[in-house]
Amino acid sequence: MAGRASNAESSSASTRRRFLKRVGQGAVTGGVASSLLGQGGLTAKEPSQGKVAHRTLGKTGLDVSEIGFGGHSWAYKKVPTREGGYRKVNIDEAVEMISAGMDMGVNFFDSCTPLDESSTPGEALKRLKARDRAIVSIRVSHKCKGVENDKQEIYKWTEERLKLWQTDYVDLCLLCNTENDTPQSGYWDMSYSMEALDKLKQQGKIRFTGFGCHFTPELFLQAIDKYGDYFDIVSIPYNVRHRAAETVLPAAKKKQMGVITIKPFARGSLLKKKDLEGDDAGLPRDMVSFVLENKQVDICTCGVHTIDQVKENFSASWTKLTPAARDRLQIAAATSCGGHRWLEEGWLYA
Ligand SMILES: NC(=O)c1ccc[n+]([C@@H]2O[C@H](COP(=O)([O-])OP(=O)(O)OC[C@H]3O[C@@H](n4cnc5c(N)ncnc54)[C@H](OP(=O)(O)O)[C@@H]3O)[C@@H](O)[C@H]2O)c1
Predict the structure, then answer these.
(1) CA quadruple 341, 342, 343, 344: dihedral, nearest 10
(2) Which residues pair with 138 in a beta bridge?
């Protein structure tokens, strides 16, 4: 008995030390840090006393959590297996992660093009009976060529995703293209796309529309200028290294568009080679806090693959950056992110 107690005490002391190290880099606002510490047993893995703040998603008027679940969370094989490989997050894990996020007030769910990004959270929300508490966003991939077939493509992608999300409607439908679909390929003729989106709205299958692509900031500015009155949302990369969004967001806000940022960690590249259990503990949280400091951002979506990542990343909402945390972010921002050419070439701070 005595042995068990002393093991528990030393484990509690060690997690407490880790927590102190983490919060040492970023101050928790509103006295939450001291109240957590005052209760002895709470660690950075249990920040659920905090609530993720909400913002208004531009002209949609939707009340959204300022941090959202990224769709890639469910699509990529990132969970280590006993055999030394990797697998995707399973449904039970997704239920646990989503439930923890919703307890913190998170209500936004992004989903990109892979099917799991809709099917996994769709099934999890069904099990949690939580669809009516969620804002669901889908991305439909098409080339916006300005040909009649654009419409069929949008209908097909939307119907497929409604089934996977196990729902009659989604809140947002975003047009999504690759870096190869430039205006030269006819991208900016969205006439048929808008016709299709209008019909889906009339049918009650989608509520609001937007676009978000792997484009350059200049192309985003053109799109906002030309189509910002029609579309409600723009979705754009933004993190401590890739800050060119700061040159685009004012134009989006002028049109009252909602702003959803992606890639707060540059798909994890900014965290590579960091000692996240030691000196760099809390760095991912601080990277999200950095994005949230920009009040032109409405939602920062981030990829999460474990319950610990859920708790850490969402705690950014109540964490204020200290001077020491800012210094550490500046160092991280200087790291080149190979493998993400479109980000590195187009989105570095202008
Ligand atoms: N086409 C589009 O419009 C488009 C494109 C890209 C992204 N998006 C959206 O934006 C969302 C966010 O972007 P993203 O997922 O590409 O990249 P991200 O959020 O910048 O990075 C996600 C990666 O960061 C790592 N990570 C996250 N939290 C961590 C933590 N607390 N500690 C350690 N590592 C952590 C994870 O790596 P490990 O897996 O190694 O743990 C994860 O794979 C996506 O999920 C998607 O919804 C849309």
Answers:
(1) 40
(2) 173
Split into its structural domains, the chain has a count of 1
Q: Is residue 24 assigned to a domain?
A: no
Give residue 299's domain range. 52-346
Residues 131 and 168: beta-carbon distance below 8 Å: no
Non-local (6+) Cβ contacts of 226 within 8 A are: 188
- The CATH number given to whatever domain includes residue 272 is 3.20.20.100
Of all protein residues, the one whose alpha carbon is nearest to atom 25 of ligand 1 is 268
Confidence of residue 275 (pLDDT cuts 50, 70, 90): very high
The answer to whether residues 329 and 240 touch, using CB atoms and an 8 Å cutoff, is yes
* Ligand 1 atom closest to residue 111's alpha carbon, by position in its atom list: 47
Global pTM?
0.88
Instruction: Dump strand ranges (E) for 224-298.
Output: 233-237, 258-262
- 81 C-alpha vs ligand 1 centroid, how far in Å? 20
Four-CA torsion 159, 161, 163, 169, nearest 10 degrees:
-80
- Asked, for residue 30, whether it belongs to a domain, the answer is no
Contacts of residue 329, defined as CB under 8 A and 6 or more positions apart, other chains included, come to: 240, 283, 286, 287, 290, 321
Q: Which residues have any ligand 1 atom within 6 Å of their CB?
A: 70-73, 78, 110, 112, 139, 176, 212, 235, 262-268, 271, 276, 284, 301-305, 309, 312-313
Kindly give the distance from the C-alpha atom of residue 176 to the centroid of ligand 1, in angstroms, as a whole number: 17
In a domain, 281, yes or no: yes
Q: Give residue-wise pLDDT tens across range 209-237.
A: 999 877 789 889 988 999 999 999 999 99
- Is residue 201 assigned to a domain? yes
